[in-house]
Design brief:
Elements: H1 6-21, E1 42-48, E2 54-59, E3 62-68, E4 70-75, E5 80-89, E6 100-101, E7 105-110, E8 116-121, E9 126-127, E10 130-138, E11 148-153, E12 156-157, E13 166-171, E14 174-175, E15 178-183, E16 194-197, E17 200-201, E18 206-213, E19 217-223, E20 229-234, E21 237-243, E22 245-250, E23 256-264, E24 272-274, E25 277-281, E26 288-293, E27 297-299, E28 301-310, E29 320-325, E30 328-334, E31 338-344, E32 346-355, E33 366-372, E34 377-384, E35 406-410, H2 417-423, E36 427-433, H3 443-450, E37 454-460, H4 472-484, E38 489-492, H5 509-526, E39 531-534, H6 543-546, H7 554-563, E40 572-577, H8 600-610, E41 616-622, H9 645-660, E42 665-670, H10 696-705
Parallel strand pairs: 1-8, 10-18, 19-26, 28-34, 35-36, 35-42, 36-37, 37-38, 38-39, 40-41, 41-42
Antiparallel strand pairs: 1-4, 2-3, 2-5, 5-7, 6-9, 10-13, 11-12, 11-15, 14-17, 15-16, 19-22, 20-21, 20-23, 23-25, 24-27, 28-31, 29-30, 29-32, 32-33
Helix pairs in contact: 2-10, 4-5, 5-7, 9-10
Length: about 700
């Protein structure tokens, strides 16, 4: 076995001790015998492990060489020596000297004579600063926006950053003051334009900071209707003058007040103006909210439409209508023409007179009061008859005799003729609908006659079918056929003074009288014994509220019929009375108002006197509404809530008694006998026949008439 010399053992021990004493960054190589070192000296071959790293080398505190990667040192053996590398530099490492450094290193080693010690310094990274990774983020920015982040760190300005861009800043450790201003032409489109942040920087680490700005919301404000312009305000602050629309960037998440003032409308003239409009609204960050400002129209004027109606004016006649308002002439209207005048609101005194060389041929003037409603049209027809008035009666046709009162009832199914006979009724009323080209049918007539009743047919149609005077002749043909089949009475149309039954804008007693004339001539030509009853107007006083385009008061409509010569084309004047809540013997005391349509006597005197007593009256609808047995009435019929079945029975009997004892009423048709609808139009509440089969009105009428 080989033996080891004491020198070898001693040298191995020294190597071991050196390894234990060396710093962890300096890794000595194993000693090599025969190294090129002076036998009387000790040698060190020292390297920095990274070839790109340079340093200053020291031996026992004495500078040897600077800015090199390796060094060979020769020194005294047998004593400890300290080898150092200072001021390490490596330009190839990003951020070296700014973000990080390599600290100085050293080791101490004692060598025997002639020994070369190989050692390496391994640079250790020491971070002296950290990184701030900054992002500019104005939410909602668009490519066309001129906006940027202007960054200041610890008071030092940095280059501006575009939206969405980022930058890295190397900073000393600790809390840093970062201020950001949002700059650019569109910067104010964001809720705030500045922010302060205090990120804490840690050496060797990256701190992230996103400078976020929330976009303001956008109000897209428009004035409606189109054509209006106004001064726009936001939260009381003036924004823009006389604009129809504007986009407003405003703080999100807050309720704002938007206003339009001083609103102008080129089309308004002096007829109306617009009130200021305002609303409140909020908008989400980056959101869009459409806001419509709808000002209220304040009417300053309405319209008066007058028709100049000169009976039988010849083309050679020099005559027109003079229109006088409140004592002052406001214009003239040609015969047969209509004039429209803009007037202030309220009630005015209107007079129309015939002027011109031929004016003496007509009567007049005519006067009335007209109420002008803002934005509405009030209609009036100045009707002038020749003086003296010539009455023309259709040849060989005389009115049906008006002697003898009779009464009956309107039915739906006509399946209780026994009760009607028990009550003393002789007539039954049925409704028939006409349309252009329709064929008349004798079925209802034959059914009534077979049951021992006279029949009144109320013949009506759609307003659109007679618009502009169309199809009058076809309607006349139809009712003539019904007369030929044996109809005992025909009511020509129904409630033609309201736009539910007659074309809106064409409601006119003269136009209705023309339909009546054609129907009368056709009926009498087919059956002179058929009773012709004019259509009963709806009892109403609403023309002031809605205008004559939609409704005429029934008294003015009846007067217009009389002036148009309707008495020549009817046997009996049709009347509707169905809004009473008092006995027909009463002529006052209605809690609603004193209007004449509330009272049976008011209806009789108004209609009878309109024709100067020349024709009797036929009530084609007369009834009293009661909710008893059905439940509450709909709101528009609430006026009858307190009427009982006993009231209904008593008042129907009293009405029949008054009529048969008078010289003015020819016929009463009770509305109704057996209708069952009870909804928005509670027709069943008028019915004599009640749920369960009872008929108190039948008993009351039987006690009066004795039945038949």
């Amino acid at each position: 076995m080989p033996t080891h010399s004491s020198h070898s053992v001693f040298r191995a021990a020294l190597v071991a001790l050196a390894l234990l004493a060396a710093p962890w960054l300096a890794r000595p190589a194993a000693a090599q015998s025969g190294a090129p070192c002076d036998p009387a000296a000790a040698c060190f071959n020292v390297n920095i492990s990274q070839a790109t790293t340079l340093g200053d080398f020291y031996l026992d505190g004495v500078f040897i060489v600077g800015g090199v990667n390796s060094v060979h040192l020769t020194t005294t053996p047998g004593v400890p020596h300290t080898v150092e590398v200072r001021n390490l530099q490596d330009p190839t490492v990003p951020g070296y000297g700014v973000l990080l450094v390599y600290p100085d290193q050293s080791f101490t080693q004692q060598l025997n004579p002639g020994v070369t010690w190989r050692a390496y310094f391994y640079p250790r990274t020491q971070y002296i600063r950290g990184t701030l990774q900054y992002t500019c983020l104005p939410y909602g920015w668009a490519a066309a926006d001129q906006v940027a982040c202007r960054v200041t760190i610890d008071g030092v300005p940095m280059p501006d950053l575009a939206p969405g861009a980022g930058a890295s800043y190397t900073l000393d450790p600790g809390a840093r003051a970062v201020h950001t201003d949002l700059v650019g032409a569109q910067a104010n489109n964001w809720n705030t334009t500045a922010r302060d942040d205090a990120p804490t920087i840690t050496a060797g680490r990256t701190t992230w900071l996103t400078a976020a700005f929330t976009h303001k919301g956008v109000f897209k404000v428009s004035l409606l209707p189109a054509g209006l312009v106004g001064d726009i305000y936001l939260d009381g602050n003036f924004i823009v003058a006389q604009s129809a629309a504007v986009d407003l960037f405003t703080a999100s998440g807050t309720v704002h007040t938007l206003e339009a003032r001083n609103i102008q409308d080129p089309a308004a003239g002096a007829r109306y103006r617009w009130a200021a409009a305002s609303t409140t609204a909020s908008v989400y960050a980056g959101g869009t909210r459409y806001v419509y400002l709808r000002p209220t129209k304040i009417w300053l004027q309405g319209s008066l439409s007058v028709l100049c109606s000169l009976s039988r004016k010849a083309a050679a006649d020099d005559a027109a209508c003079q229109v006088i308002l409140n004592g002052t002439e406001i214009g003239r209207v040609a015969a047969g023409a209509r004039g429209v005048f803009s007037l202030g609101l309220g009630t005015h005194s209107l007079t129309m007179a015939v002027v011109g060389a031929s004016a003496g041929k007509w009567n007049g003037p005519v006067s009335t009061s007209v109420t002008i409603v803002g934005g509405g049209t009030t209609y009036y027809t100045g009707r002038f008859s020749l003086t003296p008035t010539t009455v023309t009666t259709p040849p060989n046709v005389a009115p049906v005799a008006n002697s003898g009162f009779e009464f009956g009832g309107q039915v739906a199914g006509f399946d209780r003729p026994d009760l009607m006979r028990y009550a003393g009724m002789l007539w039954v009323k049925r409704q028939v609908r006409w349309s252009p080209g329709a064929t008349a049918d004798a079925g209802l007539i034959n059914d009534a006659h077979a049951k021992g009743f006279k029949i009144l047919l109320s013949v009506l149609g759609s307003p659109d079918d007679i618009r502009g005077g169309a199809n009058y002749a076809d309607y006349a043909r139809f009712v003539g056929d019904l007369a030929r089949f044996g109809a005992d009475g025909i009511e020509v149309w129904n409630e033609m003074n309201i736009d539910r039954e007659w074309p809106a804008g064409e409601i006119d007693p003269a136009k209705y009288t023309e339909l009546l004339r054609q129907a009368y001539t056709s009926i009498k030509g087919a059956n002179p014994g058929t009773l012709v009853i004019s259509g009963a107007p709806a009892p109403t006083g609403a023309e002031g509220a809605f205008g004559r385009a939609r409704v005429w008061n029934d008294n003015t409509f009846i007067a217009g019929m009389a002036a148009a010569g309707a008495a020549n084309y009817l046997d009996c004047v049709g009347v509707h009375y169905n809004e009473g809540i008092l006995s027909p013997t009463r002529s006052s005391g209605d809690p609603r108002d004193p209007y004449y349509t509330r009272y049976y006597s008011g209806m009789v005197s108004t209609y009878f006197n309109a024709f100067g007593g020349a024709r009797k009256l036929c009530f084609t609808e007369l009834g009293y509404l009661t909710p008893e047995g059905y439940g509450p009435l709909p709101g528009s019929f609430g006026w009858a809530a307190n009427t009982t079945l006993a009231n209904q029975a008593q008042w129907l009997a009293e009405a029949v008694s008054l009529a048969r004892g008078s010289t003015t009423v020819r016929l009463i048709i009770i509305f109704n006998v057996d209708l069952t609808q009870y909804g928005d139009d509670p027709q069943a509440g008028f019915a004599m026949l009640r749920p369960g089969g009872g008929c108190p009105a039948c008993e009351a009428l039987h006690n009066l008439t004795g039945g038949r």
